[in-house]
């Protein structure tokens, strides 16, 4: 019998390894996936996707639409399903990275290792286990690079059309992709110098780009249907443009705070050294220099992406150096991590080729060197996996969910809660968790939540005075408090606030608050507040025993708010020792010295103890 040996084609082997990488990474991410609402924008994005709403500027319409499809998967909770979308695209992005590195190095072993290195990078992994837009953004960066490599290799215009469509589509997920446009244009021109004269081709590419960009039309069309979450209400042309241009934030300024921006660049470089370990960082840096000798066009592309997504981003944003800015910006740099991994892989391949030439006549020694390099290449991502697993395992994370539930459960029936945060990421976590619980899980729908951006207008819509937003922040806060106090008194409804109310915040009113540990109930005066009973409650939350969570900037800041509330409750109930201990814990975790929460507590303590 003649048995024909079946040989896999190169394409089949690459496809198998592509799928293998995806399965490995996706499995790890699923094991570490957050089971419910997480921190920062998580609650808002889960709400926007499951309810097909409008997210914060610039709206993230593509993320919202894709998230809706994931929310329909009949496995786990709605929050878990949307969290899974980050894991899916995070896994897909590193699988495409394998294909990119394979084209550049022609080494499957190095490409396989490079993909897993990015997958198990601590920051990249952290964004792959809860609802956020960043892994989808890295997916588009990697896909755009790969499409350009295929076009450069095959010289077929159809790949430029596909690239143009994908690039337009990517902007409807995250506008940071716009920063990379010069890098992509440069690469196309370098590989096809006469393209600038081909107006027909440019016109076709532009139309494909617009087709992808047209997903933004979701925002006004959906807003007209008044979804439960309708941030910015972008129904009119002016509101629509204001939303996608992020005018609410006013965060684009090239000339502002030059010294702070310089410090952010230095911190960016330092963070890369920390996350990649300095030997890997040095090898990555060497990669770009060697690439200019062998693959100049791709060197220009990768270096441009790296600089535009780091230095370019820092220069454009109106953000000074602060702990919160550093924390927020760290995830913006994820495409830079992808580029670093490519450079690192290129250095390894370049070094191996040099060794092969030097040891071409010493076959046995060459085999030993190859084996050692192979072992190192395999062990590097494995080391990353083991070292970062515990740090990124959020499979039992319930802290913010429990907090939101207990906060809402502490309110009286038909209560009104005035939420006014400090605009920090901790405040976002707090408010967006409440948003998720009410709008998605329908928990405590009897509670009327009021905030300055009117997120909960489907419950109760506030008509702000014309000049309200021209006032300074503290006066806006006072005006909103006074407005709600008058309304709740008229209808005999209990009023709670997320902040302490005292003589300074009430201004011309005598109203005063008493804390239940979660929020503060407002009374007509300090005497009635002291007579009111807000008993010491059960303040236990799951995950509090995990002290490593306090090391995270966002969670530490969130927990400081939690401890300030408990300290206030202990103070008012005469537990001075517990109040002091808890207050000190809040200060320890508070990232801002003498924050508004700190000042409110000090003022309240003075007035309460008069």
Q: Describe it for me?
A:
The chain has 610 residues and is mostly helical. It has a five-stranded mixed sheet with strand order 2-1-3-5-4. The model has no long low-confidence stretch (mean pLDDT 90). The chain has 26 helices and five strands. Helix content is 63%, strand content 3%. Helix 20 links the parallel strand 1 (416-419) and strand 2 (448-451). It has helices spanning 10-31, 42-50, 61-71, 78-105, 108-119, 122-126, 134-154, 157-171, 181-191, 199-213, 218-223, 237-244, 258-276, 278-294, 296-316, 323-332, 334-358, 363-392, 399-409, 425-439, 473-490, 503-506, 526-531, 553-572, 576-589, 596-608; strands spanning 416-419, 448-451, 495-497, 512-515, 520-523.
Short description:
This protein is mostly helical and 610 residues long. 63% of the residues lie in helices and 3% in strands. The mean pLDDT is 90.
**Class by alpha and beta content:** mainly alpha
How much of the polypeptide forms β-strand, as a percent range? under 5%
Uncertain segments: none
- Assign a percent range to the helix content: 55-70%
Query: Any idea what the radius of gyration is?
Result: 27 Å
Topology:
Elements: H1 10-31, H2 42-50, H3 61-71, H4 78-105, H5 108-119, H6 122-126, H7 134-154, H8 157-171, H9 181-191, H10 199-213, H11 218-223, H12 237-244, H13 258-276, H14 278-294, H15 296-316, H16 323-332, H17 334-358, H18 363-392, H19 399-409, E1 416-419, H20 425-439, E2 448-451, H21 473-490, E3 495-497, H22 503-506, E4 512-515, E5 520-523, H23 526-531, H24 553-572, H25 576-589, H26 596-608
Parallel strand pairs: 1-2, 1-3
Antiparallel strand pairs: 3-5, 4-5
